[in-house]
Design goal:
Distance between the termini: 65 Å
Strand content: 15-25%
Structural class: alpha/beta
Oligomer: single chain
Order of helices and strands: EHEEHEHEH
Number of strands: 5
Length: about 150
């Protein structure tokens, strides 16, 4: 039995620029602000650790790997770039949003991650492209402004 591939396409949607990420926030209370830390979340192999280290170096902030919820930095600790283990994110997604900004390095659409992320970055892009894109978005929020090297 032969199937015409055109039958599978139900609707074509043109997008403004398919290569750019979009700012995402499920809370309609307003745009994200640059308070607290930046939390990079995503599944293993998404490139979030490499992106986090490069961003921390670029912004002159400390880099932290968060493997359990007790390691989460508080507001009093100052801004940091944190890579969060999936099991920590699964249990503490709401807390992360209270502590700062959440960027999801996405390999595939995951509802929990999408509903708790301020920014979404495609995992398939190169490090430099995601670094530039995220740095641009963070600058709009004021994240890390006025912070020197640590």
């Amino acid at each position: 039995m032969s199937v015409d591939k055109k039958e599978f396409v139900k609707q074509r949607v043109d997008v403004e620029d398919s290569g750019r990420t979009r700012t995402w926030k499920s809370d309609p209370s307003g745009p994200p602000t640059g308070r607290g830390s930046l939390f990079l979340v995503g599944r293993p192999g998404s490139g979030r650790a490499e992106l986090g280290q490069a961003l921390a170096q670029r912004l002159g902030l400390c880099f932290k790997a968060v493997d359990n919820a007790d390691d989460l930095p508080g507001q009093e600790d100052g801004p940091a770039v944190c890579v969060v283990a999936p099991e920590v994110f699964d249990r503490a997604a709401e807390t992360l949003m209270d502590l700062g900004l959440v960027a999801y390095v996405m390999e595939y659409p995951d509802p929990l991650y999408l509903s708790h992320a301020h920014f979404v970055l495609p995992a398939g892009r190169g490090l430099e492209e995601n670094l530039e894109d995220l740095a641009e978005k963070l600058a709009l929020t004021g994240f890390g402004s006025g912070v020197g090297s640590r």
